[in-house]
Amino acid sequence: MSSKNIIVGLDVGTTKVCTIVGIKNLESGLEIIGIGTHASLGLKKGAVVNIDLTVESIRNSVEEARLMSGVNITSATIGIAGGHIYSFNSSGVVAIKGKEITSDDVSRVLEAAKAVVIPSDREIIHVIPQEFKVDNTTGIKNPVGMCGVRLEAHVHIVTGSISLVQNLVKCVEMAGVRVENITLQPIASSEAVLSTEEKEMGIILIDIGGGTTDVAIWKDGSLLHTEIIPVGGNHFTNDLAIALKIPHAEAERIKINHGSVLAENINQSAHITVQGLGGQKPREIQLSIVAEVLGARAEELFELVQTQIKEKGFDQSITGGFVLTGGGAMIKGLTELAEYVLEKPVKIGIPISFGGMTNIMQSPKFSTVLGLLIEANKSKPFIEEFESKEKATFDLVTKLSDSLKAVFKEIF
Ligand SMILES: Nc1ncnc2c1ncn2[C@@H]1O[C@H](COP(=O)(O)OP(=O)(O)OP(=O)(O)O)[C@@H](O)[C@H]1O
Ligand SMILES: [Mg+2]
């Protein structure tokens, strides 16, 4: 299969590494042809803490996707998150040189907006334009071609620790995959689950992963703010393991199969059998106790989100409510509890579907990787296969005539 129109999204998460292979085609746009998911063993709170284990997890996930798709994976768009990410808004102004604004003017104003002092151990990952202002006209998305004398840009800047970004890039490259682009994970998840209307109206995405909860705030079609909170689904499991004095793996099983965050909805007589620590006998526990532990953590997490939103002053301007996604959003009762704490409508965000093996990806835990695939798709133009077919035919004819020449040489 030709690799020209192959695109790959690679999500190196705290709990899983997921690789997804898509092929661009003219009729259906994007078709998924391979998926590889493997447990992630070398990350903590979104950051690499063990290079060898991370490389191995990436290799396994990429190999699974390669086997399923039948294509060699050489490059990918990867996601980044972790407590080291820090984002802020900035602006810049330039004088317009000619009569009309050109793409050069836009590049210059974006350069001016990103000319902010950041600590020497940090690098800029994204400079995302929010809006442009030409003279006194605000709210412009694309100023190219407009007339004016003064161009102003408002941007959202995402920065990360140089060494932590490099550690992730190094692991991916050690696994044999070149990094084409790096995208902040909540931006990728937003691409996969939010509609254009929702981003226009004003909405907050909360991606609850294993190690982090990633927040992205959208309004008027622009990204206003991003935040990485170092609390995720693993903290729910840890709480359960500590409160019930059970092994971590058993706590994870109970959370996934029997967990809920609404203790009041659970019958007091409902019990489950749990394995004790270190060879202790299995024992019965009340399901409402499980829900109380998980509910307390969920409430605390949404309060943290609420505090961040209020601190940044977005609580009044966002009318569309919240969308929960990520594997951690799958605990029963989470939307109801979130509505109660956040006092706005809340729903679960499931990734939009593509052609190919799209139905197995219809889960909140695949939002980031699908968003990375969408980002990769946007940055790579469709390449006509016609040229290569012609070349392949030419190569075949050359090969055939060469071997015929050899045969004739041998005979005569
Ligand atoms: N059915 C389920 N019910 C409850 N929780 C679930 C369910 N399935 C997965 N989870 C939880 O989701 C979390 C993993 O989510 P996800 O796969 O989105 O994380 P990740 O991308 O690996 O991590 P991160 O984004 O933090 O780096 C784990 O804590 C896991 O326990
Ligand atoms: Mg994730």
Question: Please, could you describe this protein's structure?
Answer:
The protein has 412 residues and is an alpha/beta fold. It has a domain at 86-161: Dna Ligase, domain 1, CATH 3.30.1490.110. It is 38% helix and 30% strand. The protein is built from eleven helices and 19 strands. The chain has helices at residues 51-69, 103-114, 162-174, 185-193, 196-201, 233-244, 248-258, 287-311, 334-342, 367-379, 386-411, and strands at residues 6-12, 16-25, 29-39, 43-44, 47-48, 75-80, 86-95, 122-134, 137-140, 150-161, 178-184, 203-208, 213-219, 222-229, 271-274, 283-286, 322-325, 346-348, 355-356. A hairpin with a 3-residue loop joins strand 2 and strand 3 (29-39). Helix 4 crosses helix 10 (367-379) and helix 8 crosses helix 9 (334-342). The radius of gyration is 25 Å and the shape is globular. The two termini are 39 Å apart.
Question: Secondary-structure map with pairings?
Answer:
Elements: E1 6-12, E2 16-25, E3 29-39, E4 43-44, E5 47-48, H1 51-69, E6 75-80, E7 86-95, H2 103-114, E8 122-134, E9 137-140, E10 150-161, H3 162-174, E11 178-184, H4 185-193, H5 196-201, E12 203-208, E13 213-219, E14 222-229, H6 233-244, H7 248-258, E15 271-274, E16 283-286, H8 287-311, E17 322-325, H9 334-342, E18 346-348, E19 355-356, H10 367-379, H11 386-411
Helix pairs in contact: 1-3, 4-10, 6-7, 6-8, 8-9
Bound molecules: adenosine-5'-triphosphate and magnesium ion.
